[in-house]
């Protein structure tokens, strides 16, 4: 969590980022949250995991968590990240220790939608490899019995998250041609701030 995301997600409680940050810092002091550097002078906050579980504070783990948080906070839809404990409770046959929590749930007027985030980490990989990975994510979920009830209700989606708008356009065009084969919706979201984590400017 960041103060900016918290203010966007709960404007009824936090009318600006200063109030949101003060609340987060108080929760750190009460040992409910852990604060860790994000980029430059920004921090992010993690909930303390249940005994026996550990949160991933690696750079890769923080990038993944930030991408999912941004997807939830930037949308008008009511989205929230699925916690490790929630995933274990709802999908015990699929859960295993160390499984990355790349899921969010979107609540609305119809059945809850479960989303899986495929993050573009930049680097030398070509855009078509990212398309292939997203299609493989769809196939993998389609073959997993635990997700069958979501797929039957058209309530499971894959979301590719990238920092670059130009790359997002290319991904959308490519996925439009191939997504029918996946039988699961695949969307693309742009989170420009991710560039500060994936390819930070030297200080």
> What is the count of DSSP helices, taking H or I runs of 4+ residues?
8
- Strand composition percent: 15-25%
Label the structural class: alpha/beta
How do the strands line up in the largest sheet?
3-4-5-6-7
The tally of beta strands, per DSSP, is 7
Lay out the secondary structure.
Elements: H1 3-9, H2 17-29, E1 33-39, E2 42-47, H3 59-73, E3 78-81, H4 84-90, E4 103-107, E5 113-119, H5 127-142, H6 148-152, E6 156-162, H7 165-182, E7 186-190, H8 195-198
Parallel strand pairs: 5-6, 6-7
Antiparallel strand pairs: 1-2, 3-4, 4-5
Helix pairs in contact: 1-2, 1-3, 5-7
Short description:
By secondary structure, the chain is an alpha/beta fold.
Describe the overall structure.
The chain is α/β, with parallel strands linked by helices. It has a domain at 78-198. The protein contains eight helices and seven strands; from the N terminus they run ααββαβαββααβαβα. It has a five-stranded mixed sheet.
Task: Jot down its keywords.
five-stranded mixed β-sheet, alpha/beta, 203 residues, 20% strand, two-stranded antiparallel sheet, 8 helices
């Amino acid at each position: 969590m960041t103060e900016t995301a918290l203010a966007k997600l709960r404007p009824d409680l936090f009318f600006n980022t200063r109030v949101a940050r003060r609340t987060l810092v108080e929760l750190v002091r009460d040992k409910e949250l852990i604060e860790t550097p994000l980029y430059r002078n920004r921090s992010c906050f993690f909930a303390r995991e249940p005994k026996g579980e550990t949160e991933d504070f690696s750079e890769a783990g923080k990038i993944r968590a930030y991408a999912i948080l941004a997807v939830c906070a930037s949308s008008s839809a009511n989205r929230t990240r699925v916690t490790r404990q929630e995933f274990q409770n709802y999908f015990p046959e699929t859960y295993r220790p160390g499984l990355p929590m790349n899921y969010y749930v979107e609540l609305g007027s119809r059945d809850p939608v479960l989303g899986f985030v495929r993050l573009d980490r930049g680097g030398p990989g070509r855009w078509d490899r990212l398309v292939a990975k997203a299609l493989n994510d769809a196939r993998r979920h389609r073959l997993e019995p635990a997700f069958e009830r979501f797929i039957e209700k058209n309530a499971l989606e894959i979301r590719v998250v990238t920092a670059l708008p130009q790359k997002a356009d290319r991904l959308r065009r490519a996925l439009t041609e191939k997504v029918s084969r996946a039988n699961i919706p695949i969307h693309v979201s742009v989170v420009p701030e991710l560039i500060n984590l994936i390819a930070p400017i030297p200080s």
